[in-house]
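Quick question: what would this complex look like in 3D?
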Amino acid sequence: MNADPILELENINKSFRGLKAIEAISLSLSPGEIVGLIGPNGAGKTTLFNVISGFSVPDSGSVTFKGQSLIGLKPHKICKLGLTRTFQIVKPFNHLTILQNVAVGCFNWASDMAAAEAEAWRTLEFVGLEKKALDQAKATTIPDRKRLELARALASKPDMILLDEVMAGLNPTEQMKIIDLVRQIRQSGVSVFIIEHSMRVIMGLCDRICVIHHGQVIAVGTPGQICADKNVINSYLGEGNAFVKA
Amino acid sequence: MLSASVTRGSMRKSPSRRGWLMIAVFIFILHFLPWVAPNTIHLSIMMFLFAVMGQGWNILGGYAGQASFGHTVFFGTGAYISTMLFLRLGLTPWIGIVLATLGGVLLGIFIGALSFRYGLKGPFFALIMLAFAEIFHMVSLGWGFIGGAEGLLIPLEGYAPLKMQFLDKKAFYFLSLWMVIGSLYLVWRLERTKIGLYFLACREDHDAAEALGVNTFRAQLIAIALSAGITSMAGTVYAQYLLYIDPDSVFGLLNSVEIMIRPIIGGAGTVFGPLLGSLILTPLAEYSRLALQSYSGVYLMWYGLILVIVIIFLPNGLMGLLNNLKDRYQTKGQ
């Protein structure tokens, strides 16, 4: 790693009662990097995101973002520092319009309505939702809700964004559109940490991949290294996987 | 690139200059109502006062999504603060109303800080409010210093505008009318500000709001402070108008229902919902009280019936119905 890491996780532990959800996870992400987080269901991926974004407090360990500790900070403070997230189960503000949904994110930095609204329109054009801007969020389709989730997070102008399965439930064409968006987001200088189950997506998109299993990191490396890793093949990819051969 | 062709509407529309002019003319005309229909003055005052309290409830319940089952605690606090200051210290209710509003705001922040700190939402918050209202009810019943169960009688000193006392009801008509206008304008403005949008975000989803940088605790505290302040302010005017308050009428559960039912039926989370609800329910209650005097609780059965119908058929209240009709009309027009 050449530059100072934007996000550094050190020895994070989190258990729910007796169950160890995350055990001694350490990882660091460089600015402008796209890092994938994969692992079987229940491996602790979303728990790790919850810990980073302030929705849950780790039992021990440290989370450092741009040189500042995030432990004990509320999610809204962490968002102000420039780290935001999307939710695996989308949480649109149902009874607000798409535009209002995105404007909430804009107010993370904007102070007046006009500035927030202008940026909300720009963000909606970026994700391709501008024609539905004045529809109520509850009246939209799943692919649009995923995009809305992305748009809202982007509107807060983060330096780093955590994407929790933004492509789940989408067909390959819709996935390609989101992949394009994520690439453009990185181009604009935002670091991306992404949970995704589709290996096709993750292999093509990420600079590095972190694999966790039973709450522990079993491998970190480039997509090529991950495909060749014996542990990953055994616990996640499986023998005879198309990516393993490649 | 099609994107450039999309017309950029704004989030909330504002009336045109002609619209504003019509509103001004309408308000102007309303000032003559006491002369045109003198019999409706009392009804109008009650209608306006409950519209103001409903608007107070609406900020917290309709916009910030924390429905309160005990909002009368703020109303009663406002009524008691100004009345006690007037009776014991001779302080004019014009200053009393400011202190009553302030007292309401502080009480709101106190209850809010206790509740929202622990993330109370929905039924739990509603019941906390009910509990506070009942505590105040019981304390005021048993505390002789503030009149106990007998309540407080404000001696009528004749025409004394400096003490918020008038022999003519017209003065209270104008006072309550302008309180309605003020509260409508406040909420209308609120809808167009950051904090108003934050209230809505809190109502819709706390986690999503937090992830987008909304301090949900702070936003809800502001909501309850505004909400409580407005409701307390109405309490003072109510006490000065009726010149008598007692624990059952200002801290009783029934009054909490009276306050919340208007915005719910009119349309919670809309600017005009509380006023619309009050325009319909207040006359209904007053006239059924007059018509069926020997059956004193009949109007409550009316409330129940209307509430059932509205909840089944109009979950967004009467304003929701009006908006649907407007949308249908506009799509037909295109």
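Answer marked as accepted. The longest strand of chain B covers residues 152-153.
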